[in-house]
Amino acid sequence: MKFKNAVVRIAAPASAVMMMLFCIAVLMSWITGTSMQLRLLSNSTPMPPVAAICGLLTSFAILLLQSRKTAFRVAASVCAGTAGLVAFTLLGVWLAHIPVDIENLIVAVPDVFLGVKIGRMSPIGMVFFILADAALVLTGLFPAERRIRQIGDTIGMVILVAVSVILTGYWYGAPLLYGGTFIPVPFASALMFFALAAALLFIMPDALFSRLITGTSVFASFMRYVVPAITVVIMVSGWFVLTFGAGLVRENRVIIDSLVAIISVAILTAVSFAVSRRAGRKLQESEARLSATLRSIGDGVIATDASGNVISLNNVAETLTGWKTRDAFGRGLSEIFNIVNAQTRRPAANPVFRVLTEGIIVGLANHTALIARDGTERQIADSAAPIRSERGDIIGTVLVFRDVTDEYHMQESVTKSEEQYRHLFSEMRAGFALHEIICDVDGTPTDYRFLAVNDAFERMTGLKRADIIGKTVREVMPATEAVWIERYGRVALTGEPIQFEDFSGALDRYYDVRAYSPKRGTFAVIFNDITSLKQNEREREATISMLKLINARNGKHELIQAVTMYLKEWSGCEAVGVRLKEGDDYPYFETRGFPSEFVKCESSLCTPDINGQLTRDSAGNPVLDCMCGNVLQERFDPSKNFFTTRGSFWSNGTTELLATTTDAERQARTRNRCNGEGYESVALVALRNGGETIGLIQINDHRKNRFTAEFIGMLERMADSLAVALTQRSVEKALRESEAMLQCLWNISQYRAKDMQDLLDFTLNESLALTGSTIGYIYHYSEEKKEFTLNTWSREVMKECAVMNPQTLYQLEKTGIWGEVVRQRKAIVVNDFDAPHPQKRGYPEGHVKLSNFLTVPVLSGEHIVAVAGMGNKKGGYTHADVKTLTHLMDSAWKIVERYDALESLRKHEVALMQTEKLKSLGVLATGIAHELNQPLMALSMALDLMLLKPGDSAFAAGKIESMKGYISRITKIVEQVRTFAREQHEDAGGSFSVNDAVTNVLSMIGAQFGNSNVRIAESLDESLPRSRGNLFRMEQVVLNLLSNAKDAIQERMESERGHSGEIMIRTSCADGMVRMNIRDNGCGMSDEVKRSLFTPFFTTKPEGFGTGLGLSIAYGIVKSMGGDIHIISRPQQFTEFTVTLPAGV
Questions:
Q1: What whole-number distance in Å separates Cα of residue 87 and Cα of residue 328?
Q2: Which of 618, 793, 903, 1076 has the fewest CB atoms inside 10 Å of its own CB, making it the most exposed?
Q3: pTM score of the predicted model
């Protein structure tokens, strides 16, 4: 077989090479003038030069077609087309009888053979070249077309037969066409055309080649029967020429031609008769064999004629249709072969009619059912084919069919099952893939091939079915980890299923995989994408870890330390830092992994201006530098891929970012220190809570591509949690500080200072404790004089200070850094007092050594009234200390100012009460004078009587005793007045009886009220408990209420003559309260007067008769003892005052 194939492959180029060499030899003979001598056969003309040129071009074309390259095939088409065009031109000239000897234009050929010019191409050769070159042109342009190859084979066979006839004539010495006017084909050209025919047949051999020789077609019959006849004719013709000569042949042309025709017909008839008899015997034998075959075949077979009428049925067909051949013969096929669609019940298209019209093999459609003569229905499958004659005409059809009822139902079940499987396969939510494992020579799995995948596979992997089916995983995903191939290899080779979860680096996804082997060497996987689940788990674990850190009972510093340590471990990055707000800046609070020099240089984000002040924007906000400042101050463009929608920044390649973006795109000019340190991966996430920016998380790494969008999103959520925790701790710290400050303020407000100096000393000590300072001071400041006056120093300062003759008064212009608090009107903090500072002027000798220093102004309105300073706090002062001391001193100073105001008010109150007492004494003066006059008159009368009876000692003794009683009475009255009039100091810790207050007052004013016709009745509860307070203050209240009652009665007496005035005083105790009721039947008062009765300076008396302070002072005294005063009054009826006091001891 290999030898045969090799022969076929070299036949075409070998034939072409023979043609080429032959044509070159012919041309050379013509060019050298030896053409007349070149005779391959006696009495044969030589090959014309034009034929040699065409043959040379054609051989070139055949050789070029051996290449698969398009350029060579195009060149072959050009060569063949050129040769064919020359031949076509010559044929046209010959047919048109144009008297142009084109061949002689190339080479002069004067010789004549048998009356015919030699050197000219035969029209037969022209036709050969035209046909052959046309086939070569088509083959070069359409190498893959089978029909083109068949055309080449056919043309090769035609040329081969024709040339064989011509060569046979030369062999028998009677070449065709010699002796006529038709130009014969030279023997040399015939040999060339024989090689050309062989090349055409072998250049692209097709099965048609063999059919042209052995088939039943007309051409095959011609080849088998006519060619031998022609050969006989040639032999006879050659015998005539050789025997009688060419001249005799020309003279007896009609007789010779008739004789040749008779002989040819006789030969053809004899041959045909022999062939017919042989064909008849073969036909009988064939029909017998066909009948036996049809009877033994297991399928039904029906044969029809060209009209579709039934000719025969085999036994199976008779059984299936219910028709016998004798009954069915001549009937239409539709009557015998009744078929319908099993699903629609409509008649099915009979395939025989399509076969008869189109001449093709046709099969039945699916779901076709055959209804037999007795009505039995069977599911069938069939096909119909044409029966052709030897000439290819359709002379009938053969229909082959079989009963597939059981198979149909089974197939329907299978189809339904397959459809369900396909639907399940396509619609299942889990990914599915079938693979073939690939092993090396040692049987070790090294790769696997994709055989089938479902839609879910495409969704979960991003790989398309069309791109991967038939390819290996190494081709599709070269980065696939070896562990996947090892696992799947074990499944495919051992048949043991597995289930696992793992991360695919090639796809950057997590999968839950179940793998099994449907047959050895293959494995199937069912999987789900669990990337989101894994990310959620990772985020949940990270969140839990973060929450544990956040909820731990620790301070801010411990929290940030724990968080930075965790973030460094969780992210796998080299450096983590946290910035927290301190004043206007956001310095590093905690770092891990950053170089110390980097932290020192990059800690502050604020840049001072030429005056040393922070650079601020138009709104007064400090300008924060670098990308950290962008994130903190929310300067970002969310359309840039290095910013997130919430303003975080991240980059996996800072070098590339700086090279491909501008400062404007990055929102600000950056310092590029991170990139300068070699950090390629940088992430910056702000810490914000409730609109407040607390700080920033920074993560750096020298390696590229450390972050993903999911990582940054998770970091942002962690930052939110941390911001809440920091806010909570800040709030808790602020609350503790606020509580401490409030406690300080409470202590200050409740401190019973001896004077202002004592209060400020106490305030300073509380400030020192609150700020954690060891030394401090408070200076008064006068903006008018620009002077500081020392008020108080802490005790530690007094212990340590050894300055000789320390000043207590300082001018502002002479102060150093501590005076900046007034010059700048803001707090001043110096945490490194040893560092140089332009405002420092040094210590006086013996001054306390300072390590750090904080001073704040104390303002009253817009004026600085004092300065408070603290120093030597362990760890230095923070912005929180500034706020704490400022708020404390502001609030404390209000207490100081209130203390000062209360002291002033107390002095005025005492003076006012004394004034009111003097007024009351003036009111009582008339009554007191009357009370004194009575005993004095009695004394005077007693003395006069004694003078009248000077010797009566018993009488004198009695009068003397009476005088002693009068003198005692006068002394008691004067003592009561003196006691009431003198200034009484507050005695909040004392107690008294309301009954005593009432009795004492009545003893002073009883006679006066009696002289005014006002009767006083009293009902005092003897078991009345004592009340806490001052007795003398309570006497003032009773006196004031009784005086107002007397005035109301006298006013009513003036309007109602004969009215009898009366005042009723009652005391009682109920529900822990002591009550005193004073009711008069005076003029009463309106509701409007009642509402204003206790208002200072309100009075209903005429001008000059009252100050309007009596009841107001009485009300204040009762309220100071924890009591109250209530009024019930009806105009022109009565007024009743009820005084209630808490029961005391």
A1: 61
A2: 618
A3: 0.41
